[in-house]
Design a protein that fits this description.
Elements lengths: L2 E2 L2 E9 L3 E7 L5 E7 L1 H4 L2 H17 L7 E5 L6 E5 L6 H8 L4 H20 L2 E2 L8 E4 L2 E4 L6 E2 L20 H5 L6 H17 L9 H10 L12 H7 L10 H7 L67 E2 L57 E3 L13 E5 L8 E6 L2 E6 L6 E6 L4 E2 L3 E3 L2 E7 L4 E7 L5 E6 L3 E8 L2 E6 L4 E5 L5 E5 L8 E6 L4 E7 L5 E7 L6 E8 L1 E8 L2 E7 L5 E8 L4 E11 L3 E5 L2 E5 L4 E6 L11 E4 L9 E3 L3 E5 L5 E5 L4 E5 L19 E3 L2 E5 L5 E5 L7
Parallel strand pairs: 11-12
Antiparallel strand pairs: 1-2, 2-3, 3-4, 4-6, 5-6, 7-10, 8-9, 12-44, 13-14, 14-15, 15-16, 17-19, 18-19, 19-20, 20-21, 22-23, 23-24, 24-25, 26-27, 27-28, 28-29, 30-31, 31-32, 32-33, 34-35, 35-36, 36-37, 38-39, 39-40, 40-41, 42-43, 43-44
Helix pairs in contact: 4-6, 4-9, 6-8
Length: 739
C-alpha cells in the first residue's frame, strides 16, 4: 500500500495485531503517523465500528498530551487514520533498552501521565489500554497514543462477547469482571501497573500466562518491591481492587506538585535527524537529508583554531586510554540509570537556517594534511569532547570521512545541534574550523566539487551551503526549499527533485545549474542511491498498487539514462557492488521481506527471501553477502547468490541493541554500527560474533532523543563515531577487543 488517502506512506514505524503505523507526509510537508488496518479486518463490520470509535475518541482527546488527529477515513477499503508524528521512544522501548527509570524521572513520568489522563477523562473518554507501548516519551513530556479500544462514557458500542479486550498485565479487575462498567478509574489502575514496570522492569502481577495474570489482578496484592519509598503508597492506591478507592488524576497531580520532582534534570535534548550515508564497498551513499535539532536562537558562528602547531604529534597515551582532543587522558563518562531513548525512523525533510557562520581558522597552515594522515604513522585513539563552542550536547554528532586523493588531504567532517559543520583533524580530533548553525540545523556535511557541503535548515526555508575545505570560507549557497525528497550528492553533482517531479542538477563547485529535466517514465521519482563505482545515481518509483517498481540508472553529470527496468515488488535501491544493484523489498505492511539482486549487464533479477520479515531493516553489502540490521537489534547475513529457490542465512545474531545506526561493512571481515547509548559495536562478518564494543557515552543526568542515529565513518585502521554526550571519538579498528 503506497497511499492512505492523499498521504504517501514513506516508512514503517511499527506493526501491531490490528494494523500498521506508517510515517507519511502531507502536501505541505507535515510529518504524520498514519495507522492503516490489516486487510483481513477491513471486511469485519464490528472492527470497522470499533475503528470509527477509535477515530472519534482520538479526535475528542486531541491535545497537548496525545497525538492530534489530522485526517481519517474509516470507510476506506483499508481504513486509516492520520495523526501528527511525534518522535520519541515508547516507554516499553526505553525500559527495554536502558533499564528501570531513576526515581526523579519516575516522578516526572507519573505527573505527566496523570495530567494526560485528566485531559482524556475530561473529554469523556476512557482509554482502557494504557500500557508502556502506548506511551511516547518526548521532550515535552509523555504522550498517550492508540485509542483502539477506548470508549466514550456515553458510547452504546458493546464489547464482543467472549473476547478479552485489553492487555492483561495492565487491566483493572473490573475489566475482567464487569467489562461494560469500566470507567476512568480503570485507567488509573493501568497507570499504577505501568509505573511499577517503569520503576522495576516488571509488572505488579507477573506471569507468562495471561490467565494467571488475570487471576492475580483480581485476587492478589500487587508486588511493589523496588518502587521508590515516597511513590510506593501512591502507586499502591492506584492499584486498589475497588475503583472507588483509587485516586483521581487530579489527586495524583496534587501529591506530585513541585518541588516533588526536579524538572530541570529531565528536559530532553532537542531531536534531530541527519543525512545518513550508507557506506558500502565502492563508497556509494544514501543521502536523504533530514531535519535535526536547532541550536539556540542567535547562537554565534564559532571556530576553534589549532591549539598546537601543525604537524606536531601528541604524546602517546597511557594504559590504552584514548586521548582527548586537548591531548589529555580520555574523559570517563558517568552514564545515568536512564539512557537515551530509542529512535523513531524519519525520512527526508528539509528545514533551513539564515546566514553563514563566518569565522575561519586563524592558523596560516591548514591542519589535517601531510604525515599525520599517512599509513606509516601510528594511529592513536582519541576523544573530542565537543566539536565547537556552540554545540548543544545531548545529540550524537554525525560525521563523514573522505580519504586523501592525489595529494589532497583526508577530511573528517561533522555536524551536530548548534554546529552546522566542523572540520576535525582525523589524526587527533582537533577542530580545524567550524561554523555555528545560527539558530538552524544541518545535515551531515560531505565533500562535493572540492568544497564542503551542508544543508542548513529552519522552519521557513532550506539552503544548501558550500565552504572551502581548508579554512571554512563560505563560497556559495542555494535555496533548495522548493524541492522534495532531500538533497542528493552524486560526486561533484548535487541532485534535487522539484515539486513537479523534474530533476535538477547543480555543479558542486560553483552551485550553477547543470541540467534540469524529467526522468522518462517517472512522475514522482525518489533518488535513493549514488554509486561512485558505477558512476550512476539510482531512482525508483513504485506503482500505485505496490506490485512493481520502476528503477532507473541516471548519469548525474548529464541526466542521461544508463538503463531502466521495471522490477516486481515494492523495492528500494540500497547498495551496489561490482555493477550489481541491490534492492530491499517491502511487503504490504512495510516490513522488509526479501533482497533483490539485479545485474543490469545480464538483465537477471534474483529475489532472495528473508527467513522472516524485518522492521526498518538497514542494509550493507560486501562480497555478495547482504547484511540487514533491523529495529530491535536482529542482524542477518544473507547470501544473495544461493543455489536453488531458497536461501538460508549465513548467520543470524541478536545484538541486544533496540535502536541502532545503519551498518557499515569494510575489508577485514568487520561490520560496524552505533547504538543509541553511544556504543560503537563491531561484528565479525565471517561468523557473526561480536568482537568489540566501546563504553556507553551518555549525557549524564539528561534524557536525550535522536530521530536518526548517525552511522560510524571508517578509514583504514580506524573508525570514527559520534555519541549522545556530544563527543566524537576514534578507535583502532585493528584491535576491537581493547575498546
Amino acid at each position: 500500500m503506497e497511499y492512505a488517502g492523499s498521504y504517501r506512506l514513506e516508512a514503517c514505524l511499527g506493526s501491531g495485531g490490528m494494523g500498521v503505523v506508517h510515517l507519511a507526509r502531507s502536501a505541505s510537508g507535515l510529518r504524520l503517523a498514519v495507522k492503516v488496518v490489516h486487510q483481513q479486518y477491513a471486511a469485519d463490520p464490528e472492527f470497522r465500528a470499533r475503528f470509527r470509535q477509535e477515530v472519534a475518541a482520538a479526535r475528542r482527546v486531541s491535545g497537548a498530551f496525545t497525538a492530534p488527529v489530522v485526517d481519517a477515513d474509516p470507510d476506506a477499503e483499508r481504513p486509516w487514520m492520520a495523526t501528527s508524528y511525534i518522535p520519541g521512544p515508547t516507554l516499553a522501548e526505553q525500559v527495554r533498552s536502558n533499564g528501570p527509570m531513576a526515581p526523579a524521572e519516575l516522578r516526572r513520568l507519573t505527573a505527566g501521565l496523570a495530567e494526560a489522563l485528566r485531559d482524556i477523562h475530561r473529554a469523556g473518554v476512557v482509554h482502557r489500554d494504557l500500557k508502556p507501548g502506548n506511551v511516547l516519551l518526548t521532550d515535552n513530556g509523555p504522550r498517550v497514543i492508540d485509542f483502539g479500544i477506548s470508549r466514550p462514557v456515553d458510547s452504546d458500542l458493546r464489547t464482543e462477547t467472549g473476547k478479552l479486550i485489553g492487555s492483561p498485565p495492565y487491566m483493572a479487575p473490573e475489566q475482567f469482571q464487569r467489562p461494560r462498567e469500566v470507567g476512568p478509574a480503570a485507567d488509573v489502575f493501568a497507570l499504577g501497573s505501568l509505573l511499577v514496570h517503569a520503576a522495576t522492569g516488571r509488572g505488579p502481577f507477573d506471569s507468562d500466562s495471561p490467565y494467571i495474570v488475570a487471576y492475580q489482578v483480581v485476587h492478589d496484592e500487587a508486588d511493589l518491591v523496588g518502587l521508590p519509598a515516597d511513590l510506593a503508597p501512591l502507586v499502591g492506591r492506584c492499584l486498589a481492587k475497588d475503583p472507588a478507592e483509587r485516586p483521581t488524576p487530579d489527586e495524583i497531580m496534587s501529591e506530585l506538585r513541585p518541588p516533588s520532582y526536579e524538572a530541570d534534570a529531565f528536559i530532553p535534548a532537542q531531536r534531530r535527524s541527519v543525512e545518513r550515508p550508507l557506506a558500502v564497498p565502492g563508497g556509494e551513499q544514501r543521502t536523504h537529508v533530514g531535519a535535526h535539532s536547532a541550536s539556540a536562537p542567535g547562537s554565534a558562528p564559532e571556530q576553534k583554531p589549532s591549539s598546537r602547531p601543525a604537524g606536531k604529534r601528541p604524546g602517546r597515551r597511557e594504559s590504552g586510554e584514548p586521548k582527548t582532543a586537548a591531548g589529555g587522558r580520555r574523559q570517563h563518562v558517568k552514564w545515568p540509570a536512564l539512557a537515551i531513548g530509542a529512535v523513531v525512523l524519519v525520512y527526508g525533510g528539509l528545514w533551513a537556517a539564515q546566514g553563514f557562520g563566518d569565522t575561519r581558522a586563524s592558523s596560516s597552515a591548514p591542519r589535517g594534511s601531510g604525515a599525520a594522515e599517512t599509513a606509516d604513522v601510528a594511529f592513536e585513539p582519541w576523544l573530542a569532547p565537543t566539536i565547537g563552542k556552540t554545540a548543544k550536547r545531548g545529540t550524537a554528532p554525525a560525521c563523514s570521512y573522505t580519504p586523501s586523493v592525489s595529494g589532497v588531504s583526508a577530511t573528517l567532517l561533522c555536524s551536530t545541534a548548534g554546529v552546522a559543520v566542523a572540520r576535525l583533524d582525523p589524526a587527533d580530533g582537533q577542530v580545524i574550523w567550524s561554523h555555528g548553525s545560527g539558530g538552524g540545523t544541518a545535515s551531515v556535511p560531505v565533500v562535493s566539487g572540492g568544497l564542503v557541503h551542508t544543508v542548513l535548515t529552519s522552519a521557513k526555508s532550506a539552503r544548501l551551503r558550500a565552504y572551502e575545505k581548508d579554512d571554512g570560507t563560505p563560497v556559495w549557497s542555494a535555496d533548495v526549499s522548493g524541492h522534495r525528497g532531500g538533497v542528493h550528492h552524486a560526486g561533484d553533482t548535487v541532485l534535487l527533485v522539484r515539486n513537479d517531479g523534474r530533476v535538477e542538477a547543480l555543479n558542486g563547485r560553483t552551485g550553477k545549474k547543470r541540467w534540469e529535466r524529467p526522468l522518462p517514465g517517472h512522475t514522482d521519482p525518489v533518488l535513493a542511491l549514488h554509486s561512485p563505482a558505477t558512476g550512476h545515481t539510482y531512482a525508483a518509483e513504485s506503482s500505485a498498487d505496490g506490485r512493481t517498481t520502476l528503477v532507473s540508472a541516471v548519469d548525474p553529470e548529464t541526466g542521461d539514462l544508463a538503463w531502466q527496468r521495471r522490477l516486481e515488488g515494492n523495492l528500494d535501491p540500497v547498495g551496489t557492488e561490482g555493477g550489481v544493484l541491490f534492492l530491499t523489498s517491502l511487503d504490504p505492511d512495510s516490513m522488509t521481506d526479501a533482497v533483490v539482486r539485479y545485474d543490469p549487464a545480464s538483465g537477471d533479477a534474483r529475489r532472495v527471501p528473508l527467513p522472516y520479515t524485518m522492521a526498518e531493516a538497514q542494509f550493507a553489502v560486501r562480497d555478495d553477502t547482504a547484511y540487514l540490521l533491523a529495529r530491535g537489534g536482529t542482524l542477518v547475513a544473507l547470501d544473495t547468490t544461493p543455489k536453488g529457490k531458497s536461501a538460508k542465512p549465513r548467520w543470524e545474531l541478536e545484538t541486544d541493541v533496540a535502536r541502532s545506526s545503519g551498518p557499515v561493512v569494510t575489508g577485514g571481515d568487520r561490520l560496524y554500527f552505533s547504538a543509541a547509548d553511544g556504543q560503537l559495536i563491531t561484528v565479525d562478518t565471517a561468523n557473526g560474533s561480536l568482537v568489540g564494543r566501546t563504553k556507553p557515552r551518555l549525557l549524564s543526568g539528561k534524557l536525550a532523543f535522536m530521530s536518526t542515529l548517525p552511522a560510524p565513518a571508517t578509514a583504514p585502521g580506524r573508525v570514527y563515531a559520534g555519541a549522545p554526550d556530544g563527543s566524537v571519538f576514534a578507535v583502532d579498528s585493528e584491535n576491537p577487543a581493547t575498546w
